[in-house]
Amino acid sequence: xxxxxxxxxxxxxxxxxxxxxxxxxxxxxxxxxxxxxxxxxxxxxxxxxxxxxxxxxxxxxxxxxxxxxxxxxxxxxxxxxxxxxxxxxxxxxxxxxxxxxxxxxxxxxxxxxxxxxxxxxxxxxxxxxxxxxxxxxxxxxxxxxxxxxxxxxxxxxxxxxxxxxxxxxxxxxxxxxxxxxxxxxxxxxxxxxxxxxxxxxxxxxxxxxxxxxxxxxxxxxxxxxxxxxxxxxxxxxxxxxxxxxxxxxxxxxxxxxxxxxxxxxxxxxxxxxxxxxxxxxxxxxxxxxxxxxxxxxxxxxxxxxxxxxxxxxxxxxxxxxxxxxxxx
Length: 328
Hints:
Blueprint: E1 15-16, H1 23-35, H2 56-68, H3 72-79, E2 84-90, E3 96-104, E4 112-117, H4 128-137, E5 145-150, H5 169-182, E6 189-193, H6 196-207, E7 211-216, H7 237-253, H8 255-262, H9 264-273, H10 275-288, H11 296-301, H12 307-310, H13 312-326
Parallel strand pairs: 4-5, 4-6, 6-7
Antiparallel strand pairs: 1-2, 2-3, 3-5
Helix pairs in contact: 5-6, 9-10
């Protein structure tokens, strides 16, 4: 497969990986979808503007699409058209992880290594449009980058986090830095991330001298401080618009985050029990956090949050401009 040759400096147990979910597991999922009930009509779920969350009408359509039109085998074929790998990485506490990643490797000696880290509710899938863009522009002989997209432990095909201790994004950063070093990039690489991925790559830069620069398309920051006399500091019209969005999010859109933070065991049990519950929980975010509602097939297959999924050309152009400034 093109773009699949490991860099010359790579060492260790890298194994080619093919997505092949067993037929009985796919049939089990389809049975659960068929047997899962959609909640009865209520005042709250009758809204189509997502005021109180995902609406019943949308859920009925999503379930019908999933049962009758969505093809997992076609989704697998699309995903397997890119080079996948797994390798074993041991963290700083001695825990071993199987780390899955998708990559486009260049044969150019001067190729610049960049890792791109997903967030929630995303996965490596949200970066596939970016990989397609690069495949259309370059061959493995001309690609000026090595692009590595790892799956956070517990996501898709990476093994899960340890069950005997809490697991932080700093721990993820340590594992991903070791992955990049194992691939032969100890002398330097760039890290890019959005959502949770932005926190992972910032930690990579803080704790590793190999991570030379970070590119973020998501940044959590406090509201602007007040001046010494208590008055508000001047802000631009764009700042005001974003502050209004943040205030609205904190008031009406952060319930999921509070649940994740305070009752992760409970919501985990709910979402693991039903694919319909999972698509409601994630589908709502796809509808609210995108500029335009994506097709149901995109939500069922990909999820995401969401710049690389929605605007791969714009995001990659910004990344290239950033690389040109910081990589010498």
